Structures are given as C-alpha cells and as structure tokens.
Amino acid sequence: MIKKFLSLILAAVILQGCSSPDQSSTSQETFSTLEDAVNEFKASVAKNLVLVKTTDDSHLLLAEDTNGLFYVGGIQQKGDQFIPGKLTARIDLSSGAGGAGVEIDIPDSKKKYYVSVKKNSIINSDKQSYMPLSKNKSFQVLSKKEGEAVVKSYEKIK
Predict the structure, then answer these.
(1) pLDDT tens-digit series, residues 24-52
(2) DSSP codes joined into one string, the chain
C-alpha cells in the first residue's frame, strides 16, 4: 500500500515537472542591436573585455575577471535579434606554460574555434596572430578545422 502511494506521488511530481517550465533554466534575453547585447555582457565583466569579429562574421567576447581568470562569450544573431551568452567556464591562466586555450563550439552553428590566451606574447605570422587582451596578455582565435587565424577585427570594450 505504501509503495503504491509513494509511486503515485513520484508520478505526480514527474508529471508536474514535465508540464511546467523549468524554473532553473535561464531565459536568453534578446537585444535589437549588437551594441546593446555587448553592453549587457559588459555589465557582468569585472576587468577586461574584447569584442572579436571572425572572418565568418561570428562575434566572440573574450573576458577576464578581477582574479585573472579568462572566459569566452559570444553573441548569437537570430534574425534581427542579438543574444549574448557565456560559452566557456572560467580558465586559470596561471597554470600551465604561461597561457591556456579552449575549444569553442558556437551554439546552433557548425562553427568551431580554438581560442588561446598567453602572458607576455605577441606573435605575428601567417597562421598565428596574437592580439592584445590586456597589459600583459594576448589572444588568438583559430578555426578548429584549418588551424588558421580567423580574427577579422577586434575592439577593446573594457
């Protein structure tokens, strides 16, 4: 009898969870301009922020917090709306050989990149170009497939 009662309660909880929106999921706020989406993301960044436009017109946001942790965000465009979002967890640049890298998959897209940040490194060549992120850090963005630099332009926002 108790097993049947507990089974009914469990079934009711599961069904209620399926029929109501998930309270833990975050709704993605949309903006009518790229600038507004960047400004929204900028509000959550404590230290450095660089907006990168890739050669295939993706927009990446390279951010650094006050603890020196680095992460990547992006701005998705759906129709005439722009949606900012975080794409990676925070990465500690102090570990490793003076830098770190992360693979990026753009949501709802087949675009894949490799983003790396290094301390005190400016390299310019055909395949590797490091641009300044902050006073002592630089970054590069490569296509994951070809391994070539894909930065069309970049702008220091913060």
Answers:
(1) 334 578 999 999 999 999 988 878 899 99
(2) -HHHHHHHHHHHHHHHHHHS--TTSPPPP-BSSHHHHHHHHHTT-SSEEEEEEETTS-EEEEEE-TTSEEEEEEEEEETTEEEEEE-S--EETTSSSSEEEEEEE-TTS--EEEEEEEES---BSSS-B-EESSSSEEEEEEETTT--B-EEEEEE--
